[in-house]
Specification:
By secondary structure, the protein is α/β, with parallel strands linked by helices. The chain is built from 5 helices and 6 strands, in the order H-E-H-E-H-E-E-H-E-H-E. The C terminus is likely disordered.
Length: 159
């Protein structure tokens, strides 16, 4: 089950920003910070790879209830913010041991620094074959991150 479906099944409004033509991850983070995301009382930012970096950097000012990251592109050359400090109520990271693009150690470092939940699983950068498991983790995460918001207002998914 795609993560969007998991969020919608729990009553979340899901919005994906259009980053067409914006290759720079820091400009994408700025676009997210300038979106209407901050208007929602239970904001969840979710992102995969570069989208994980974007969500993490934007979470420094948006202060979401939750930050859910899949193989986030953290601590990579060419990315401006090498020491992000997200202000999120709950942070969860899912990363594959065999990730060929972003070393799992990057997520371990991030999770340790921010006291985040960390799920290291078998698989590649795309988490091929692991999405049913990731979807169940995301469902539990949403339930925990927004347990006091009834009904939850938004899950913001980044590509």
């Amino acid at each position: 089950m795609p993560l969007v479906a998991v969020a919608r099944a729990r009553g979340f409004f899901v919005e994906s920003l259009d980053f067409t033509g914006v290759a720079d991850p820091d400009l994408r983070a700025e676009q997210l910070r300038n979106s209407r995301a901050s208007e929602f009382p239970c904001l969840i930012l979710a992102g995969r790879s570069m989208g994980g970096y974007v969500a993490t950097v934007a979470a420094e000012t948006l202060k979401p209830a939750g930050l859910f990251l899949l193989a986030p592109a953290l601590y990579l050359e060419g990315y401006r913010n090498q020491d992000p400090h997200p202000q999120a109520g709950l942070i969860s990271v899912v990363h594959a041991w065999q990730d060929e693009l972003v070393p799992a150690e990057h997520s371990l470092r991030f999770a340790r620094q921010h006291h985040a939940q960390l799920h290291l699983i078998s698989g590649d950068h795309g988490l091929a074959g692991q999405m049913p498991y990731v979807a169940s983790l995301f469902g539990f995460f949403l339930d925990e991150a927004c347990k006091e918001a009834t009904p939850p207002q938004i899950a913001h998914k980044l590509p």
